[in-house]
Amino acid sequence: MTDASLTQWKVETRTRASAISAVIGALVIVLAFAAPLFASRSVLQDLFFILTMLALAQNWNLLAGYAGLVSVGQQAFVGFGAYAMFALVILAGLDPLAAILLAGIASALLAIPTAFFLFRLQGAYFAIGSWVIAEVVRLALAQWKMLGGGTGTSLPREATRDMPALKFIGDLFGVKSSGAGDILTYWLALLLAIATIFLVYRLLRSKQGLGLAAVRDNQEAARSVGVDARRMKTLVYLAAAFGTGLAGALIYVQKARISPDAAFSVVDWTAYVIFIVVIGGIGTIEGPIVGVIVFYILQTLLADYGSWYLLILGLIGIVIMLFAPRGLWGLFTGRTGIQLFPVRRRLTGGPLSSSTKGGPHG
Amino acid sequence: MTSAFDTIIQGILLGGLYALFAAGLSLVFGIMRLVNLAHGDLIVLAAFLILVLVTALGLNPFAAALVAMPLMFIVGWALQFFLLNRTLGADILPPLLVTFGLSIVIQNGLLEVFSADSRRISVGGLESASIALGPINVGVMPLLTLVSAIAVIIGLNQLFYRTSLGRAFRATSDDPVTAGLMGIRPKRIFATATGIAMVVVTIAALYLGTRANFDPTIGPARLIYAFEAVIIGGLGSLWGTLAGGIVIGIAQTFGAAINPEWQILAGHLAFLVVLLVRPRGLFPRAVD
């Protein structure tokens, strides 16, 4: 008894499940980086798709699930990042790898003026306003004749084939440059997805993350205790633009062909992403991971049914939003209390033993 | 000089169409603070309904629209009563995500039934008919669109401020709980409001379908025009919405006069400029 009363109170977010999941997560990451050793090209391409969608979903989840900024215009940053990358490669002759990073920065810069307009709109009007911004960016870039105007253009083969990194990978795995390209883009997608999850998790566990949750739950109350809501939201908006732009540029390095309609597609880059997050569980880091797996399975099963696929996806999204608004992960964590990325602060140590079960509200 | 004047007139007439798109959106938002992201797709759905009535029953498009109105009222009533009412609350996520899902469902349902082909509702000779107004010619259909938009706005204003239903609308909008104490059932009031919005949507669909080609995928763009008209006009003011529609219409016709590719972009830019100088719109009324 005396021992217990001597132990210090500690505020922690870690739980036993999260400690176990960190170990498993590390193993999965090592395995994933080694995947090119044993996985075929088509598997790598599928994984690339899953990982880039996951990165987009985490960014959208950060916006909508944590900052309360429901955007239906994130395709603006996918498309702008992709176009910036194309411009840097084709017009400036840059290496695609450097171009991806600069494209992310360019997207974050684009977010400064768009935030200025969008933050004048509240709630639902913010949503449609973000869509208008995406349309404006799309229509403006469709006027850029050097990048193919409305019909689009392709990356020159030399640019994608002669990257120094590709030669290294090709020698390492004994594959041709096209195979090496798939390995490289896969690794980058893996890196992007992991970095996104890691940074979002870090943010949510930080003081700023606490402020963000407070703003989401009650903006007035949060402001009254000194949280600068507008500043937090702007920061999240810029960060999400950066991440989304990076993902867009990476996706289009792999596609190597761009057109305004494809790069700014609301279905491909926003509808799918919203359904992934809603089905998995909005406002959790685990949700988009679960969601992207369900999404991939549905897509594989229903790929041959054309528009039925989207129709079913839409219906699932509606049903989940109505009857299980915290998504599949929310249902799971509500039953078991398991959280892989806990962000809730709990008081541990001291004389009272604390419950290991976390509530559904992270 | 005449051509600039002509462009303005055509822009005003086009604005009538956008005001019709926007009136339903404005009505629903005004009463229950719900932004329906499927609004544009519901307009397209109504246009296909009119098309089916015209081709299957051989009705005149105007008669077909009259038949479609009660059907769309039922669609709107049921949609609100059984689906959208469940999403209302302090949290903005459920209504947005449910109506976004609905938008995708309607679009793909229409694609499955009607394919991606462009359609048009024929109104015979009226399509090309025009009246000479001084030095310029004005198409009969565009003129009819603007007249309908004004009639709809007058009608909705009368409904709002002269009838007991309108009083119930305003009371529920201000305070649903207190309105409930006075014997008003907010859920039914909301369902009726969405039903009426769908009647307006049907009128908009008639002109959408007769003036230009349409296909299942054009809904979201109509939603965006409607939204811009509402914001430019200022939330809560139907006459402001008409003004907003006209601002976009004029911007678009001027953009198109310079370069056809700039038509849509010019409309969006006009919206952004208004957002910049008058963030609350030209005739603001509501506080949110």
Question: Any overview of this molecule?
Answer:
The complex is a heterodimer of chains A (362) and B (288). Chain A is mainly alpha-helical and 362 residues long. Chain A has a single domain, classed as ABC transporter involved in vitamin B12 uptake, BtuC. In chain A, 71% of the residues lie in helices and 3% in strands. A two-stranded antiparallel sheet of chain A has the order 1-4. The two termini of chain A are 32 Å apart. Chain B is mainly α. Chain B has one domain. In chain B, 74% of the residues lie in helices and 3% in strands. Chain B contains eleven helices and two strands. A two-stranded antiparallel ribbon of chain B has the order 1-2. In chain B, a hairpin with a 2-residue loop joins strand 1 and strand 2. In chain B, helix 3 runs antiparallel to helix 8, helix 6 crosses helix 8 and helix 9 packs across helix 10. Chain B starts with a helix and ends in an 11-residue tail after the last helix. The relative contact order of chain B is 0.21. The mean pLDDT of chain B is 91. Chains A and B meet through helix 6, helix 14 and helix 16 of A and helix 4, helix 9 and helix 11 of B.
